[in-house]
Write a structure and sequence with these properties.
Elements lengths: L1 E5 L9 H15 L3 E8 L6 E3 L2 E8 L6 E3 L5 H10 L3 E4 L4 H13 L3 E4 L14 H21 L2 E4 L4 H7 L6 E3 L16 H10 L7 E6 L8 H11 L6 E6 L5 H10 L6 E5 L6 H6 L3 E4 L8 H8 L4 E4 L5 H5 L6 E4 L2 H12 L3 H13 L6 H20 L7
Parallel strand pairs: 1-2, 1-6, 2-4, 6-7, 7-8, 8-9, 10-11, 10-13, 11-12, 13-14, 14-15
Antiparallel strand pairs: 3-4, 4-5
Length: 398
């Protein structure tokens, strides 16, 4: 099968979607499928193809990612995709690159799958003016609905996406596709104690401290205010617990200012953008992953962290993808509030080295069914349904 994946963001941009696409591509290719990724970049003046990726010129934008494709009617991309002749087009982002995908799908008469990774109401910071928020979300909702209305199948890694689709006024069933990671890369056994100590020094993390880590796009839907508030109210310097926030995004400066206001700046460390190939080492240098989002649908970083053996501390939420993968007290911890969040961090800080190593082994074993090939097999089933729906000119999942 020839598969064209359209995503506004791709490595070196660090976020869940770029990681998801990379893993999906690897899994699909391991099954013998041909995959072309179409994305946008601020670092090219013309569309170019290299290493299985078509990169189109981008311009800066006020959207979640900070940029978007300049021209959705790019002749180079159209010519390239016509020659490639995709059997299915898979859209990952409801931005300009998504509209390019819909245009090409219409011209080539090709079935479309749209993956819901986030929700338009979560994309803008709460400190913006009400008028600005309403205008932006109005346009974002239109983009979201356009993708849903023109896709043969709507998919997501989280069942909560169905409620988001309904809230947008659309009656569509959402097919679930599990998230996965490359377990050969994200493995704590690839890092030794000496390498971990060296990286901690580079990140200015105390060698003997318990380090909680979050990694991903720093957007409002990640709810990192909850984590910072928990640190300020319930974690003391004497507890020797630190927080590492990896990534960039619209909320970076806001979170830095909050850490200063809460007087916890010396316990909170911001890395900014980090190359994705460094993430396995960073996870191996930390002790626990924190997932505080109330609404985010997918967190590739927590899947990667768990593959590296990190237990996950997650807020209680029965619809949350992370929550449903956690067995409390075994491969992670579930908290109800800030006090509970801090309690588990302190509990982990009391673990002896042997207990931490044992937990890493248990956590990694719990992720054995989340590999790239398994995710790809699940995705191919969705592609087959999209092709069938397209051929009979009926959405079979309505």
């Amino acid at each position: 099968m020839n598969i064209a994946i359209f995503t506004e963001v791709l490595a070196p941009y660090v976020c869940g979607i770029s990681s998801y696409v990379a893993v999906l591509r690897k899994g699909l290719e391991s099954l013998g499928h041909r995959v072309i990724i179409v994305t946008s970049s601020l670092h090219t003046d013309k569309s170019v193809f290299k290493d299985g990726v078509v990169r189109c010129p981008a311009k800066k934008s006020m959207n979640k990612y900070g940029y978007q494709c300049k021209n959705i009617n790019d002749r180079y991309v159209m010519k390239f995709l016509t020659k490639f002749s995709p059997d299915v087009i898979h859209i990952q982002t409801d931005t300009k690159i998504g509209y390019m995908a819909l245009s090409i799908a219409d011209r080539l008469r090709c079935p479309v799958v749209f993956s819901v990774h986030d929700y338009y109401l979560d994309r803008f910071a709460s400190d913006r003016s009400v008028a600005t928020w309403k205008i932006k979300t109005m346009f974002e909702k239109k983009h979201f609905c356009d993708m849903i209305d023109n896709a043969n199948i709507v998919a997501s890694s989280n069942k909560r996406a169905a409620s988001f689709v309904r809230a947008a006024g659309r009656n569509r069933k959402v097919r679930l596709i599990p998230s996965a990671t490359d377990r050969s890369v994200f493995n704590y056994k690839n890092a030794n104690d000496k390498a971990v100590s060296k990286l901690r020094k580079k990140l200015k993390l105390p060698l003997n401290a318990v380090v909680a880590v979050f990694a991903g796009d720093l957007s409002v839907d990640k709810n990192l205010e909850f984590v910072l508030s928990a640190f300020s109210r319930h974690i003391k310097k004497s507890d020797n617990i630190h927080l590492l926030i990896v990534g960039d995004g619209t909320e970076l400066e806001y979170l830095k200012d909050m850490a200063v206001r809460f007087k916890i700046r010396d316990m909170v460390h911001f890395t900014g953008t980090v190359a994705h190939n460094l993430m396995p080492a960073i996870y191996s240098a930390c002790d626990i992953y924190v997932c505080s989002s109330d609404d985010a649908l997918m967190s590739m970083s927590f899947v990667e962290a768990m593959s590296c053996g990190l237990p996950v501390l997650v807020k209680e939420d029965k619809e949350k993808f992370a929550y449903n993968m956690i067995k409390d007290g075994v491969n992670g911890f579930v908290c109800k509030n800030e006090a509970g969040f801090a309690k588990y961090l302190k509990k982990l800080s009391a673990f002896k080295p042997d207990e931490k190593r044992q937990m890493r082994r248990i956590v990694r074993r719990s992720m054995r069914d989340t590999d790239a090939e398994y995710m790809a097999k699940c995705t191919v089933k969705v592609y087959e349904q999209a092709i069938k729906a397209f051929n009979i000119n009926v959405d079979i999942i309505k």
